[in-house]
Structure formats: C-alpha cells, structure tokens
C-alpha cells in the first residue's frame, strides 16, 4: 500500500512540474508599428538620414520570449525609446544603435 501511495505522489509531482514549464524560447527581435509586426533584417541599408520621417518611438517592451502585441512595442529592452522611421510599404527603420531595417512579417 505504501508503494502505491509513493507512486501516486511521485506521479502527481511529475505532472505538476511538467505542466508548469514556461516558454523559454527567445523570439526574433520584433516591433509592432501601426498594427503590423516587423522583424529585424540582416540587410545592410544605405539611406539619407536627412530625409527620414519619424512615425513614433518604442514606448514599451515585452519579454524576449513574447511577440509584441501593441503599437510601438518591442521584445528587446535595448529598443526602448528608439525612434521609428517610415521606409517602404513593407519595412520601417529603427534608430537605437545606428539605423536598422525591420521588414514586415508575413
């Protein structure tokens, strides 16, 4: 009888530990602008910084394991207060440590 009780307790502990694990997979660096989700591009950009039009700033941050859900939100804390510039219909530029291209997520 004691063996059965021990097995039941071990099984219960195992189920509670497995059921409580969080998503720890880091998402790609992303930002939400005007209801659209953009991801950081590896492309090198050549641009005239004098012609850029500011459309906002990153106002708040979510965890890097999450996707941004609100406008002007990012999933990297180093993007906080970064300036967002319009670029093309499917990309924006973020100035946080230089100028970085972000492309629309399909």
Put the structure in a nutshell.
The chain is α+β, with helices and mostly antiparallel strands. It has 1 helix and 8 strands; from the N terminus they run αββββββββ. The protein has one helix at 2-19; strands at residues 30-33, 36-40, 54-57, 60-61, 73-74, 83-88, 91-95, 99-104.
What does this structure look like?
With 106 residues, the protein is α+β, with helices and mostly antiparallel strands. It has one helix spanning 2-19, and strands spanning 30-33, 36-40, 54-57, 60-61, 73-74, 83-88, 91-95, 99-104. It has an eight-stranded mixed β-sheet with strand order 3-6-7-8-2-1-5-4, with no helix packed on it. The protein is rod-shaped. The termini are far apart. The mean pLDDT is 88.
Task: Summarize the topology.
Elements: H1 2-19, E1 30-33, E2 36-40, E3 54-57, E4 60-61, E5 73-74, E6 83-88, E7 91-95, E8 99-104
Parallel strand pairs: 4-5
Antiparallel strand pairs: 1-2, 1-5, 2-8, 3-6, 6-7, 7-8
Q: Name the helicity range.
A: 10-25%
Q: Overall 3D geometry?
A: rod-shaped
* C-alpha-based Rg, rounded: 21 Å
Based on DSSP secondary structure assignment, what is the total number of beta strands? 8
Secondary-structure element pattern, one letter each: HEEEEEEEE
Oligomer: single chain
Residue fraction in strands = 25-35%
Structural class: alpha+beta
> What low-confidence regions span 5 or more consecutive residues with pLDDT below 50?
none
What is the CA–CA distance across the termini?
58 Å
Structure annotation, total helices:
1
**Most strands sheet:** 8 strands, mixed
User: Numbering strands along the chain, what is their spatial order in the largest sheet?
Assistant: 3-6-7-8-2-1-5-4
Average pLDDT for all residues: 88
